[in-house]
Amino acid sequence: MAPSDLRRPFKRPLISDQEKRRAQSLLRQAQNRQDAQRHARFLVSTVLTLPSQSYVPESQPEPEPELQVELELTESISSSGSNSLENLDVLGASKLKAAEARKWFAKQLMLPEWMIDVPNNLAQDWFVFARPSGKRCFVVSCNGTTISRLRNGSILNRFPSALPSGARKKESGSSQSYSILDCIFHELDQTYYVIDMVCWRGYSLSDCTAEFRFFWLNSKLAESGACEPPSYYHKYRFSLVPVYGCDSNGLQAAYSAPVPYVKDGLLFYNKHAHYQAGITPLALVWKDENCSQYVMDTDSKGQVPNQQQVVLELQEDGKLTTSDDPPIVFGCLDGSFIQQSGLHSGCLVRFSIGEGGLILMDGKLEKADLHYLGKANRARGSADSFSKVLLTTMLQFYTFRLCSNTVFDTPP
């Protein structure tokens, strides 16, 4: 294919809509906060206008909180089926069976988009830190035990910890209290590096800004004793990750300063972002060969394949989509091919990206040159995001052109 043909599809992503989606996410947060405040005011005004409750004799006590939660969970599951999983909290999810629990936890992590443009007001509105290499997971301490779950929802470790209600000892806290940490398990030093805090002692932080969550995390985690060396009631050590502002000094420190773990790129968090499940443009990841071992996807031997690959989710109508919300459609499979290949709705399918690459117009996908490879690894929990496919494809394209000694425009 001629250089002009190769170059054109990959020049269009410069007009990305990532900044627009960041603004929309912040607006949705503000709207949700206003809706919650209106709902709270309505509840207060309703309670104040209700008549006094009638006397309830001692012989008819109200059900205990734990029993009430369990009854509500049973009723909701039986009445609305699997759709009710989206409305459960961690206490409710802890009572689910293995497959349902994996399905619930697999959708709770906040996942970053890949940085395909530089955000406005980067220095004022964003944090940055060096992401540890390892297994991304939720760590939940509840009812005297601590469990870590991977991105696909499966259990990584079950262990006692110094987190609130994380071990079976008297001073561990109330059995109804629970905490949720967003961590990366670094296998080389057997340490959970905490990158975010979702809940602490039953108090949800998901609707708090990242600026407040990081402050709370730094002040509370050390107090709990979770950063201490392992012991009988504390099997794994937890550690904080240095977080910097995105001025020139902060960026340089995150990029180059030594850390006690292997780096896997840089993570950027918008200071005003709430913790929301799924992929969000208010969290971004950047990788290059100086701050990550794996800039692009590699095979089982650690080698970069000749063609980059993409994992997509098969929908009921045969469409192949990313994990974004809303998802990006890459193509559609014929019904007979789906049947012959043993695929079904919800399957994660792997494709290679051919020489035709991705054709984009005004930042939106028009066409993709995909070649079917087979089902994705069963350990995968979700499809790739559009930003990841876009960035890794661009990187491979420019790497190919450099290796070919072809003159072309400097990439962004």
Low-confidence regions: 1-15, 43-83, 399-412
Order of helices and strands: HHHHHEHEEEEEEEHEEHEEEEEHEEH
Mean pLDDT: 78
Helix content: 25-40%
Oligomer: single chain
Q: How many beta strands in the DSSP annotation?
A: 17
- The DSSP helix count reads 10
Which class of secondary structure composition applies to the elements?
Answer: alpha+beta
CATH class of the largest domain: Alpha Beta
State which percent range the strand residues make up. Answer: 25-35%
User: What is the overall silhouette?
Assistant: globular
Number of domains: 2
- Give me the CATH architecture of the largest domain, please: 2-Layer Sandwich
Q: According to CATH, what is the topology of the largest domain?
A: D-amino Acid Aminotransferase, Chain A, domain 1
Head-to-tail CA distance between termini: 23 Å
**At the fourth CATH level, what is the homologous superfamily of the largest domain?**
DNA ligase/mRNA capping enzyme
Radius of gyration: 24 Å
Largest sheet: 7 strands, mixed
